[in-house]
Amino acid sequence: MGGSKVSFFPFFLFVLLQRLLELFIAKRNERVMRQRGAFEFGQGHYKYMVMLHVSFLLAVLLEVTLFGRSESPLWPVLLAGFVAVQLLRAWAILSLGAFWNTKIIVLPGAEVVAKGPYKYIRHPNYMVVIVEFLLIPLLFQAYFTAVLFSILNVLLLRVRIRAEEKALMEATAYEKTFANRSRFTPKRY
Fold this sequence. Notes:
Elements: H1 8-35, E1 39-41, H2 43-66, H3 75-96, E2 104-106, H4 124-139, H5 143-171, H6 174-177
Antiparallel strand pairs: 1-2
């Protein structure tokens, strides 16, 4: 590992700390939303999401350390992509405010947030996760983790997005608000 390259452990620690911060924000937002009368939906799959994300991080750690993986020759490009999706994640979280959560917490009758990246696509945060499940392992040539967990993530997101959209359609004007927005492909307005 050269001096100008990203080293794995500081990067991995950054990702872990970021996830812990997100859990703190989610817990705080959950309290706020429940005080306003919000309900949780999709509890059945949530534990699998947690297991998937924890397993993903462990798999990256194990593949990189046990198999001696090093930075990809494309690490500057991959790192730039990682930074870009972190900015998109922050934009999504800030745009949703107290409505952002790792769980499906819905406030019946609430106005649907359609600003920030939500002005262009329905699920920018899930798009970030999809890209991260590729970029984080590819940054350190952990190809097995990238492929396996990308497939598992897409399968779980199919369940998650259906549950989330169903809950939002039943409790808010989600369908009307997002009728012309793609889940992941930005459109111009």
